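Hello again, I could really use a second opinion on something today. I've dropped the whole record in just underneath, so have a look.
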Amino acid sequence: MAALHLTLSVFVLLLAVSLNEGMRGVGPKRCCFSFNETPVAKSRVAGYVKTSQRCSNPAILLKTVAGRQLCVRPSAPWVKSLISYLDDKLVPGQTSNL
């Protein structure tokens, strides 16, 4: 009887953990709702990543050499120039260092 209770308890615990893990991956990890409009110097940017297509606002997330993250609009001319610069700087086969 005790073995049955233990087995049932372990099953319920595993079910709860798996349901919790499944809920965590439902939405995008990071979306931007406000944007930095001031151009950032190329020397201050360590890398970038595009936010998920599931976010309501398309955005680029810049990572500075100081470790900060800034949301910027991908349509801004200075952002397009910065992205081109960063892409040209990458070694073939390497990805952004975010």
Remarks:
- Helices lie at 2-24, 77-89.
- The beta strands are 45-50, 60-64, 69-72.
